[in-house]
Amino acid sequence: MGKQAIKLKILGKPYSFSIDSEKEELYRLAEREVNNNLVSIRQKNIQGWSEVDYLGMTALKFAIENLDMRQNRELKSDELKAVEALDAEIDAYLNTI
Predict the structure, then answer these.
(1) Dihedral through CA 81, CA 82, CA 88, CA 89, nearest 10?
(2) pLDDT per residue over 20-59, tens digit each?
(3) Longest dimension (CA), the chain
(4) Considering the entire predicted model, what is its pTM?
(5) Residues 30/19, Cβ–Cβ less than 8 Å
(6) Whose CA is closest to 55, among 14, 18, 11?
(7) Which residues contact 8 (CB under 8 A, 6 or more apart)?
(8) Are 15 and 8 in contact (CB under 8 A)?
(9) Beta pairing partners, 7
(10) What are phi and psi of 45, to 5 degrees?
(11) Can you tell me the distance from the alpha carbon of 5 to that of 57, in angstroms, rounded to the nearest whole number?
(12) Around Cβ 24, how many Cβ atoms within 10 Å?
């Protein structure tokens, strides 16, 4: 598990990173995702917006998606706990008959 130097471009500006080699694909996919989202937002041609505004909206989109996934995972975890508790109750009941 060695470190590797890579460069990613966001809005054409290169950024250097030193990452674990096995994470390169993840970083490249993230770079592509950010740039694709920026292109999508920029195509709306919102007057008066700067590159910072587009980056801000991209960051907001990813933050919302991240929070949504976390909340869904927590709900599923709670649902799983409820199912496990019900399963334990059913087992306990079946063991008494």
Answers:
(1) 160
(2) 999 999 999 999 999 999 999 999 988 999 999 999 999 9
(3) 73
(4) 0.67
(5) no
(6) 11
(7) 14, 15, 17, 27, 28, 30, 31
(8) yes
(9) 16
(10) 45, 55
(11) 28
(12) 13
